[in-house]
Amino acid sequence: MRLVTFAALAAAPLLMLGACTDPAPAPAPAPEPDPVPAAAMVGTLDLNQPFIARGNEPFWGVTFTPTTIELIAIDGPAQTAPNPGPVMGTGTATYTVTTNLNNTLVVTLTADPTCSDGMSETVYPAAATMVIGGVTKTGCAIAN
Asked: Other C-beta atoms within 10 Å of 139: how many?
């Protein structure tokens, strides 16, 4: 009996000490998710979807996908670059890339629901200006 009493007395301070310690802190709540960004738009042209900017005389086209930009021009070689996304302005979006041929390509899109390529009856939602190798070409842009 003495052994049990001694063990109980010896354990009592440890039990009391355990009762005095703070419980483990509750885990921090998960952070709120970032709001879904609004679609990058120039007029009605959704820049998060594939689209093409193109012009003529001489014919050229720049195809945009979420991951790549590809320039096809009748007066030069095809060139590609990763799509870094646009720098947005008021009613504009500008893409600036260095192509696989080490050329700087700048494409600026401007909301213009009356843009026409001058050769067809097609009306585009945006005007496009492309600059490469110091040469500026104009055209229009539309969903691809």
From this structure: 25
| Helix extents (H) in the chain | 2-20
| Residue 28 binned pLDDT confidence (cut-offs 50, 70, 90) | low
Bridge-based pairing state of the strands 51-55 and 60-64: antiparallel
For residues 39 and 48, the answer to whether their CB atoms sit within 8 Å is: yes
pLDDT tens digits, one per residue of 62-74: 999 999 999 999 8
Bridge partners of 126, per DSSP, are 111, 141
**Nearest to 93, CA basis, from 134, 48, 144:** 48
Name the 3-class secondary structure at 71.
strand
Question: Can you tell me the distance from the alpha carbon of 74 to that of 103, in angstroms, rounded to the nearest whole number?
Answer: 17
pLDDT tens per residue, range 86-114: 999 999 999 999 999 999 999 999 999 99
- Residue 81: phi and psi, rounded to 5, are -160, 155
Name every residue whose Cβ is closer than 8 Å to that of residue 88 and which is 6 or more positions away in sequence: 40
Where residue 85 falls among pLDDT bands split at 50, 70, 90? very high
